[in-house]
Amino acid sequence: MSEQENRLLQCFASVFPGLSEDEIRQINAESNGEWDSLATVTLAAVVQEEFSLEIDPEILPQLDSFEAFRKYVLPYEPGNGAERHA
Amino acid sequence: MKLIDALKLVALPVEEDAPEKRVCLACGFTPLHLQTFLTASLKSQLPGHRVIVKNGLFGDLSGNVERFQSQKDAFDSLVVLIEWSDLDPRLGVRTLGGWHPSQMAEIVGSARQMAARLQKGIVEASRLVRVVVSMPTLPLPPLFTTMPIEASPAETELRHVVASLAAALVQEPGIRVVSGQSLNCRSTVEERYDVKSDVATGFPYQISHASVLAEILSELICDRPKKKGLITDLDDTLWSGILGEDGPDGISWHLDRHSQLHGLYQQFLASLAGAGVLIGVASKNDLVNVERAFERADLLISKNEIFPIEAHWSRKSESVERILKAWNVAPDSVVFIDDSPMEVAEVQAVYPEMVCKIFPKNDYAGTWKFLKDLRELFGKFVVTEDDAIRLQSIRESSAWREANGNSLEMAEEFLRTAEARVTIEPAQDWTEARAFELLNKTNQFNLNGRRLNQAEWSSFFQMPGSFVFTVSYKDKFGALGKVAVMMGQAAGERLTVTNWVLSCRAFSRRIEHQCVKYLFDAFGVNEIFFDFESTPRNAVLRTFLTELIGEQFQEKVSLSKEQFAAKAPRLFHTVEGIVHV
């Protein structure tokens, strides 16, 4: 696991305390009852601050899982194949 | 603080029976991260507490403040955050009510009306709990016709509305208003507003601004204990120059001698003394020289405002020890200042719990910061009459101790001839600042160490059967002012003292015995129950009760009238101002 991915895990852990690392990797807005609009905004703010990037509000609804955040925040990680949005 | 750290702090578990700090956060916007930061800041200031921060309805600040009355029992503090859009929504970006020049007078008028409404609600809430208010922190939008660098009449009037509101609120004893100047130092204006977040989520603050504002708010909510005394060096500290070499006329503190910083320090110390802070001197000098120096009429702090003066050639820590003894305060309540790093290190080594600072001589910016830092340590909202006489009463207490002597016979004779007068009277109401202060800062003669917040203090007066007495003392050596507070409840034959404190300045005068006698006489009861609990520092009260009861006890002890009559020493006070219950 890269240092970047670990930081992303820490971001999720701060918003969803009590979840294990595996649970965080599997988390998505649909399956987790605590992932509401407030959690989305908080998560976005934490990630923006930790990674010094700005998330476009238009993109926010699409960031509905750990995996989605990972692909958005860590575009240059092996296997992501996405371009950096920020 | 970063948001991720705040979230982690908020998520930290607390004990099941942890004391609670319940704060109502009233604002017109979505509190979002500010709520997180405020909870985190309070948790870091109040370790071991369960911190609960709840907010009201979005977009309705005045309603949230007014509704607080009906929820008062759920909170012990209220935080009111006012932004321009709360005074008139057109001063924000989330409504489109128009910025036409013809509307400016009407906007100012509605802001004025809303400010009056907020003032009424906030003042009413402050009768119930501690209220902390933040005036608008965000910039006004560009709605005026003038260039941004030029103040318009409407902008000036709006700022006047806000300033008038703040000026009215700070007059109230239960309200603290965030200092705009202090906020400006910690959060620059251009880095406060997040217009994207405001439009998208209704949260208008940059993360960094929310963090700083929350820290300030939590400091004002918690109101940490302030230092009680300052011990200062003289040469190159209180004045510029070495007294032993330059002589009393050669030392200086004025512009023409390039020693103005020492003059600023002197007037700062005089300001502290006026607010009840004890000022003492520890100097390696000949006492005769020091006394001649203090005769100079142009000193900005008078000799009367300083006690004691320790001027000799012994170690500074020995001087500090004697001063602490004269003041009867703990080292952690005192600040020591000297221009010599070696002297500071010597005192710090002996008193690690004391704040010891090097005087920044010849350092203009350093002195400016030094004085600000000192104000942080000693800052006081209310200056009471007792603050004004504190040093005098300690000086007189010192004379009292010297005259009192050590033998029992001498002590008895001394008390008999002291012409002591004790005045016991009901506290008028919850605004009695001195009584509230005594309850929350006295450690040694304290029945149980319980501190009261504003809500508990004000609601105590409403409880059936409750009583709050203040006790004042004076004798031929001078007045000590209000030195004790007794609180409790009377229900039929049962009288319970729930809180009782006596200032350490007033020990050895049998005032505590007079307090107990008064309770027996005034309430006509045969037994008094004391809610005693041991604390690390209240052994003196345990000893007092043990001597009267005649045996050791654990907690919550009772004392009968017979026990008191059998063990109490003779009381020589004249008791004045008794109000029968």
Task: Please specify the SSE layout and strand pairing.
The complex is a heterodimer of chains A (86) and B (581).
Chain A: H1 3-15, H2 21-26, H3 37-51, H4 66-73
Helix pairs in contact in A: 1-3, 1-4
Chain B: H1 3-11, E1 20-27, H2 32-45, E2 50-55, H3 61-67, E3 77-81, H4 84-87, H5 104-126, E4 130-134, H6 153-169, E5 175-177, H7 180-186, H8 195-201, H9 207-222, E6 229-232, H10 243-246, H11 260-274, E7 278-284, H12 287-293, E8 309-312, H13 316-327, E9 334-338, H14 341-350, E10 355-358, H15 364-378, H16 385-404, H17 408-416, E11 421-426, H18 433-441, E12 445-446, H19 454-460, E13 466-475, E14 478-491, E15 494-502, H20 511-523, E16 527-530, H21 539-549, E17 557-560, H22 561-567, E18 574-576
Parallel strand pairs in B: 1-2, 1-3, 3-4, 4-5, 6-7, 6-9, 7-8, 9-10, 11-18, 15-16
Antiparallel strand pairs in B: 11-13, 12-15, 13-14, 14-15, 16-17
Q: What is the domain total for the residues of chain A?
A: 1
- Tally of helical segments of chain B: 22
Which CATH top level class of chain A fits?
Mainly Alpha
Sheet with most strands of chain B: 8 strands, mixed
Task: Show the largest interface.
Answer: A-B, 14 and 14 residues
Count of strand segments of chain A: 0
Which CATH architecture of the largest domain in chain B is right?
Answer: 3-Layer(aba) Sandwich
Strand content bin of chain A:
under 5%
Q: In this structure, how is the largest beta sheet of chain A organized?
A: none
N- to C-terminal distance of chain A: 22 Å
How many distinct domains of chain B? 3
